[in-house]
Amino acid sequence: MIIIDGQLVSFESTDKLGLNGFLMKSKTNNKTLIIHIHGMGGNFYWNTFIQPITKTLKGSKYDLFTINTRGNGYITKFYQGKNKRYIGVAHENIEESIFDVQGAINFAKKLGYTKFILSGHSTGCQKMIYYQSKKQNKNVKAVLLLAPGDDYSIDKKEKGKTFTKAVNFAKKQVQTGKGDEILPAWISKYSAKRYLGFADPKNTESQLLNYNGDLKQFSKIKTPILAVFGKNDEYLETTAEDAFEKLRLKTNSEFLETIIIKNTNHGFKKKENELAKTILNFLQLLDA
Question: Which of 146, 219, 247, 284 is the most buried (most CB within 10 A)?
Answer without folding.
Answer: 146
